Amino acid sequence: MTATNLLKKQHQEVKSLFRRVQKTEDTEARHDLRKEIINNLTVHAKIEEEIFYPAVRGIGTEKAKDLVLEAYEEHHADEEEKDMFPLAQKLGEAQLEAVGERMAARVEAFTGQAAEPAGRGRRR
Q: Which CA distances in Å does 66 have to 5, 10, 16, 58, 77?
């Protein structure tokens, strides 16, 4: 199986699982399906990021390099901002702030630099 066929197959499988979650009313079954989705997406992201993206980037053209960068961004930003961010508001301002502080600390641990909140200057 080619890399692209494998990735397409995984995309279809995850979409199918999402449809099943939407149709399932049983709480335990929904929970199990969500776990399966998380596992599938984790494996999918790892093989893309560890094997497929570097292979495509290795083509060496600017277009290949740009497309790989776009793929990294698209996997996360659009869906998060459209669907997950509005849902996250249910956490409430205090919990969102606490989670944000934990995330900023991890950014700093990974990069050695303080994370800058969107639309504001650097936090101290």
A: 22, 23, 30, 12, 16
Give me the half-sphere count of Cα atoms (radius 13 Å) on the Cβ side of residue 38. 6
Helix (H, G, I), strand (E, B) or coil at 114: coil
The type of residue at 33 is L
What are the backbone dihedrals phi and psi of residue 60, each rounded to the nearest 5 degrees, phi first?
A: 90, -5
Q: Is the pTM of this model over 0.70?
A: no
The tens-digit pLDDT sequence of the chain (124 residues) is 999 999 999 999 999 999 999 999 999 999 999 999 998 988 998 899 899 999 999 999 999 999 998 888 877 666 677 777 888 899 999 999 999 899 888 888 888 877 776 654 433 3
